[in-house]
Amino acid sequence: MSDIDYLLRVLNAKVYDVAIETPLEPAPGLSRRLGNRVFFKREDLQEVFSFKIRGAYNKMAQLAEEDRARGVIACSSGNHAQGVALAANRLGCEAVIVMPSTASSLKVDAVRQRGAEVVLYGESFDEAYRHALELQAERGLTLVHPFDDPDVIAGQGTIGMEILRQHGGPIDAIFVAIGGGGLIAGVAAFVKQVRPDIKIIGVQHDESTAMADSLRAGHIVTLNEVGLFSDGTAVKQVGKETFRLAQEYVDDVIIVDTDETCAAIKDVFTDTRSLLEPAGALAIAGMKKYVQQTGVVDQTFVAIACGANMNFTRLRFVAERADYGEQREAIFAVTIPEQPGSFLRFCGVIGERDVTEFNYRISDSAEAHVFVGIAASSRGETIELADAFDEAGFDAIDLTADELAKAHVRHLVGGKSAHASDEVLYRFEFPERPGALLRFLTAMNPAWNISLFHYRNHGADLARVLVGMQVPTSDAEAFREFLDDIGYRFWNESENPAYKLFLGS
């Protein structure tokens, strides 16, 4: 398909029967902080709280009547599913939606409420998609692909058309979240034909980098696994057509982490009082990182706020991690002599700074290990604190970027145990669904005693679990087989300094 075809497809896309032209809103608070003019393209204001309705409806409206009459099938973790369900409702056809079993209950319920049949299958988009293809063949349904389809891409491209119409002045860059690539392919294919001077910059979560890896390699790369925090972009493999268009038109891809994404959710809330889902805030997080990395000022940026299907119970986790993303809290493990006056000297180093957390339990007659959180204005202040501890003669380890410390150690009590011999420590991610923990426990060798366990529900779609197990060295091979067979993502934290200081035997 020629690129001029995409220009015409976008101009003639049938999206406005169900979609609205969303506002392009200035973000005054973020603009002041970044020293640039920032605008949010508010796709979270669509009826399904996501841009996905555009591509889904455009594809289905273009189908032949006999194809729609057979019914449609789609695979999605949630937002495309809602778009297809709404489009089917408006067009009077049946819809079957295959969703991963890890999909947000908020999104599953929303799809069912729009009259679609929901089939839950697998733990990832890719597993669910393979099942959708099987159902398509069995039931003679018409597939509505979530991203790798010219009509879907063109529907999403109407966002780029609206941005150029709504902002007649210079735009230096448009930031776009990437999952399978349908949104950025459509926006880029239109914008670059009309305004080639505007940079198109993609943003991916660091646990779902399929497009960035593919562009770097020069061919489509399939990831072995993806993280589910940004579930709307958790795709192991991008589309052939979306990759082709990205190769031609995308100027750069920025990678952001969970903390940076949470900080971006907070930024949007501060300026708009609206709450985006993680995937919906990726573009904002990437824009902030771009400014930080390049140091540019007085430029004009548009970030597409592409989704707001956020579970309310997930907000606790987002709020906790937002300050890390803004580098406004530093976490240290500080070792001080277990003797009179040491604690006073330690507090003197902290000075007038706000202490956000302080954990200590006596465990040694010579040294005390203190877990402390301290409010900081920037990463630079964290470095200054580390230097101050060093100058005072205190051994301090900066744990601000340590996932074990942030997600688990700060919430654990009890200290070290003399009984935890042969202990290994692993961090797991479980799908947050009935039976996941039981599956883990029954797969374990009953001879391996659980010596530490920490789980805290963050209202997300996956559970973060820390497990200490007493595994004799003679069982090392059997333990490796257990890890391979269980099928959950895991990290060996047995050598983590936070564990050794505060919990290790």
Provide an overview of this structure.
The protein is α/β, with parallel strands linked by helices. Helix content is 42%, strand content 20%. It is built from 20 helices and 18 strands. The chain has helices at 3-11, 28-34, 52-62, 65-69, 79-91, 105-113, 125-139, 150-166, 182-194, 210-217, 240-249, 258-272, 278-294, 315-325, 342-350, 379-391, 403-407, 436-443, 476-486, 497-502; strands spanning 24-26, 37-42, 72-75, 95-99, 117-120, 142-143, 173-177, 199-205, 252-256, 300-305, 329-337, 355-359, 367-375, 395-398, 423-431, 449-455, 462-470, 489-492. The protein has a 6-stranded mixed beta sheet, with helices on both faces. A 4-stranded parallel beta sheet has the order 5-4-3-6. Helix 5 (79-91) links the parallel strand 3 (72-75) and strand 4. Helix 12 (258-272) crosses helix 14 (315-325). The protein is globular.
List keywords for this structure.
505 residues; alpha/beta; Rossmann fold; Alpha-Beta Plaits; 6-stranded mixed beta sheet; 4-stranded parallel beta sheet
Please specify the SSE layout and strand pairing.
Blueprint: H1 3-11, E1 24-26, H2 28-34, E2 37-42, H3 52-62, H4 65-69, E3 72-75, H5 79-91, E4 95-99, H6 105-113, E5 117-120, H7 125-139, E6 142-143, H8 150-166, E7 173-177, H9 182-194, E8 199-205, H10 210-217, H11 240-249, E9 252-256, H12 258-272, H13 278-294, E10 300-305, H14 315-325, E11 329-337, H15 342-350, E12 355-359, E13 367-375, H16 379-391, E14 395-398, H17 403-407, E15 423-431, H18 436-443, E16 449-455, E17 462-470, H19 476-486, E18 489-492, H20 497-502
Parallel strand pairs: 2-10, 3-4, 3-6, 4-5, 7-8, 7-10, 8-9
Antiparallel strand pairs: 1-2, 11-13, 11-14, 12-13, 15-17, 15-18, 16-17
Helix pairs in contact: 1-8, 1-9, 3-5, 3-8, 5-6, 8-9, 9-11, 12-13, 12-14
